[in-house]
């Protein structure tokens, strides 16, 4: 019976050109989406490279000036560009702190259109106000990107629904169901086979489209390729499970379409946005305006008491005070000291931002199990290295590096040391480390779990109504 | 026609699915309005507090050098336009406060999306989401089988035998879809109007224009739905076709257009932008650098103009004068680079416009944001206002510095009462006329959609 069913389905699908149409559609969607993703990745890589080139060029120049000065040449440089001042180097020769794209980044734009992928932390400037947001047209951010994650999360379920919302009802509406009823197979088994066969074909098509997309974009990660395909299949499995349930529970084609579409809206549009909004209400982040107000007050206080702050600072850091006499205090000495104070005073409020965002994220992580769309989206984002967690990780690393950078120059500044070519070779360097623990396979298991819950519910309710099987055929 | 209308309306209300769908939409809309209005009031409150606080900081600076105050700077907070609570537009992705300081024009910073979880990108349960995405879907669900059901139930021949004009049936069916939608949206907008009427800057004109835009948008969807229903062989095909139309126009086209626009007219990265500004700044006068070539030139010119031999003989503090000249040069540099950015966006906007012929969603989206003053133009309008204020502030401070101190006197301090003399930053949202001017093209395209879809609907014959 299965082989017969298989052949019949194939004939039917080919004759109605469903297979041809869907193959073409999937190919188009996958190729266009992956091209868009790849373009963004290429731009990101090029931007980082060009920033690095600029830094390299300016490094060479600075080094040659330093060497010349060390040889005793007088270059007649103005005090705020001369590289012998440590603060000048700290401000004018920053390092590129970049977050390069991983190989799978093209799959999902995720948060990558909001954040910047390289910054150049300097000695001066407020690192709490460190602007990691990228310059982008907000219209583009509002509409979002047409990437593979979008195709998979939003469109693939719709294709599944359109492909199989009426497998049973169609037979009934055509009148061929009565013929089938005379065959030695139960309706449930038959619908199950039919949906399974369609699932098989659509998986083949997705495999083809994935292969083409990966080949065209020259993606060499085989693991990434397999995992992407597996993700698609598992996600489709959920939607096929749902269509199976709806097919055997509900009667007419249009009703099926109605209900399935309703599920799509709930899982893909409503649940994510409601979870997000409720997280806003439950864990409100203090207003950024409030942060500004507080920062301003502390700054103005600090400004008024600058001399006192510097004295206190030097008392706390006797190592800096050793070589100091009153005359060698420059603007920078008091600036750095008061900046440090302001930063420390703001710390409680700043951590409130971080804590509440972390709490929100935790809450969202708990509720992500309510929707396979969220699970798959997060899964793709984390593997593309474009999830919120990745950018949070990057931000933390930047903050650490920023401190490291400042700490390198502080002793030089307070000891009034001359910056030399030897110092130059020992400057701290930033190396982004991606956090592998963000990537987690459990989300895919979650989708499988949801699928099995759907199937179990179907079987139980079906068992309860088996006696009515005849009425389904009617 | 009246009979058709009544019959169709009865049928719609009888249909359990429609009742359920309609009920859900109204419930969601209610939730969205409630959430949105509470957020709106919270932000408004916060802005008021922050503004007062910031002004206090400014006025309480005590005795200080004006240029130190210029570096201390001041903040402007972006006020919300009352209609922003119906359509939040780009607010989530645009900065909310601008730091205005000496020598530097800053972009608005702290966009709300930074403080949200990754789910924020799925969308938001806000009135504009329901108005733009969900109500068209409701229209489709209500109308996909308007004609196909007559055929499927075999009532076509009955209808024909009655001698009813086919156009009367069409209008009856059209109105039966339009009236419930009108009722829901009118109610929503009236409630919104009452909630907002006390607020500063609110105008009923904008509110009704916004409503009108949505009605046109819905009429377009009704036309396409009925057209598809007329042309389809069966109800289920009509439904699938209409859902595809919805997905393509509301999701696929906007996203794809965004990608195309962005790759054709890319923005520079923040760092690149800063660097190119810096390069241009260095070509001209730097207020803090008296040794540069430009500074020497200015020195010569000023000495010649006032016919004196040294800077100390000038009737004003030359340091402050140079600072102001530098400020003017820098303002020009920023003007040039921000203009470049806008030109880039103008290119993107033309891509959006030309692809609007593929989706009625796009013109409706842009019009709705525009009228709600939550679009990109309004955001720029605010940023421009802050830049003007920054320039005025710098001049105010530098002029005082120049007039009341002498060359080299960096220790000069003004009285603590001086800060109050700086006028407050006051922002007014662009007028409705200005918005319509900016959005004229979207309006034309939306009307084009309406006319063409009507014409097609009237000329096409039922497929029987």
TrEMBL record, chain A:
<keyword id="KW-1133">Transmembrane helix</keyword>
<keyword id="KW-0812">Transmembrane</keyword>
<protein>
    <recommendedName>
        <fullName>ABC-2 type transport system permease protein</fullName>
    </recommendedName>
</protein>
<dbReference type="Pfam" id="PF12040">
    <property type="entry name" value="DUF3526"/>
</dbReference>
<feature type="transmembrane region" description="Helical">
    <location>
        <begin position="148"/>
        <end position="168"/>
    </location>
</feature>
<feature type="transmembrane region" description="Helical">
    <location>
        <begin position="257"/>
        <end position="275"/>
    </location>
</feature>
<feature type="transmembrane region" description="Helical">
    <location>
        <begin position="12"/>
        <end position="35"/>
    </location>
</feature>
<keyword id="KW-0472">Membrane</keyword>
<feature type="transmembrane region" description="Helical">
    <location>
        <begin position="222"/>
        <end position="245"/>
    </location>
</feature>
<dbReference type="InterPro" id="IPR021913">
    <property type="entry name" value="DUF3526"/>
</dbReference>
<feature type="transmembrane region" description="Helical">
    <location>
        <begin position="195"/>
        <end position="216"/>
    </location>
</feature>
<feature type="transmembrane region" description="Helical">
    <location>
        <begin position="442"/>
        <end position="462"/>
    </location>
</feature>
From TrEMBL, chain B:
<feature type="domain" description="ABC-2 type transporter transmembrane">
    <location>
        <begin position="130"/>
        <end position="250"/>
    </location>
</feature>
<protein>
    <recommendedName>
        <fullName>ABC-2 type transporter transmembrane domain-containing protein</fullName>
    </recommendedName>
</protein>
<dbReference type="Pfam" id="PF12698">
    <property type="entry name" value="ABC2_membrane_3"/>
</dbReference>
<feature type="transmembrane region" description="Helical">
    <location>
        <begin position="129"/>
        <end position="147"/>
    </location>
</feature>
<feature type="transmembrane region" description="Helical">
    <location>
        <begin position="440"/>
        <end position="460"/>
    </location>
</feature>
<feature type="transmembrane region" description="Helical">
    <location>
        <begin position="202"/>
        <end position="224"/>
    </location>
</feature>
<keyword id="KW-0812">Transmembrane</keyword>
<feature type="transmembrane region" description="Helical">
    <location>
        <begin position="174"/>
        <end position="196"/>
    </location>
</feature>
<dbReference type="GO" id="GO:0016020">
    <property type="term" value="C:membrane"/>
</dbReference>
<dbReference type="Pfam" id="PF12040">
    <property type="entry name" value="DUF3526"/>
</dbReference>
<dbReference type="InterPro" id="IPR021913">
    <property type="entry name" value="DUF3526"/>
</dbReference>
<feature type="transmembrane region" description="Helical">
    <location>
        <begin position="20"/>
        <end position="37"/>
    </location>
</feature>
<keyword id="KW-0472">Membrane</keyword>
<dbReference type="GO" id="GO:0140359">
    <property type="term" value="F:ABC-type transporter activity"/>
</dbReference>
<dbReference type="InterPro" id="IPR013525">
    <property type="entry name" value="ABC2_TM"/>
</dbReference>
<feature type="transmembrane region" description="Helical">
    <location>
        <begin position="236"/>
        <end position="254"/>
    </location>
</feature>
<keyword id="KW-1133">Transmembrane helix</keyword>
